Protein: FMN-linked oxidoreductase
Organism: Linderina pennispora
Amino acid sequence: MVDDDTRKAWRDRYRNGNFLAPMVRLGTLPMRLLCLEYGADLVWSPEIVDQSVADTERVVDEQTGVVRYIKNNRDMFTTHPNEKDKLIFQLGSAAPESALAAAKKVMQDVSGFDLNCGCPKQFSLQGGMGAALMTDPDRLCSILDILVKNIDLPITCKIRVFDDEEKTLALVKRVVATGISALTVHCRTKDMRPREPAMWKRLDAIVKAVPDIPVILNGDVFNYEDFDRARRETGAASAMSARGVVENASVFRSAGKLPAIEVAHAYIENCVRMANNYTNTKYSIMQMYTDTKSQVFVDMRSAKCYRDLCAALGLSELYENVGTKVLTERLDLNMNKNVRGKPATPSGKNKRAAQEARGKAPGADNVQVDQIQAKRIKT
């Protein structure tokens, strides 16, 4: 049973903070570590559907320190001890029991859980998750209830606003009554697009309606100054940024943003050192680096593997000194020591990267895989 002092301490964690918002595909481990390095106080994982993680196997990669939750030879969720105390795991769920099973599975590696009640994407809506929960408050609150009562970590949720302010306030009061530690409000309706200005003015009434818990603003935070302005103008306890981070992850620096190329270098270094999935790495860096007319962008766009991507950014030395070993060990972990006992063989777009990592592709490093065996710890 969690005592009142602990619950107060949990609430205080969400006050006066600058946070990384949950971002589909972009908010993976390398980005979260980068944002923490630049000054983020807490970081949210992307939304992860409860059923995708509940029956995974937890594997620790001794080479990188990365903790991987693996299912059918795929990483469902990756994290690292360096972020544990600042990491909030965002759950996508439509059922209390499934949410609880997922939370119990990963709770040893995170410091809190957030229920996604605001995602307007069709995938979430048709599964009864995300913004669909806002129109089914009984289901929403039943998920929060079971998490609050059974998980000894702070539980929060993230919603949007309705067109009707009174309807929004009624939902907010019900949600807060479950005992959550904080509430994040994306200041747009489900049908509003990102290009439409976030309605910061709507937050004032919400903050006043639930004065005992932190309310976190989400929407249109693009600069370091915007974090303070959000608190000052709306009464929010904290603010989080998503698109501002994509534009430049150093948005958390009080000293100002760094040049885009410097941020790109730091991000790719994290990706290589953490052996991040290459497809995810390339997708993310192409979203982050917007100088589309530069030769760097052109070379990155044509990259087929980590070696190409590092070369495009002038980071070949990083690849040679770190990537060849780390990426090969990651491949060995996933292929030779398959957690389900079935051999996994690369095909299609993964074949070139697999060959390169093993030193068999044209121009690849001659890495002796049998001398570099990945070690796994099952827990």
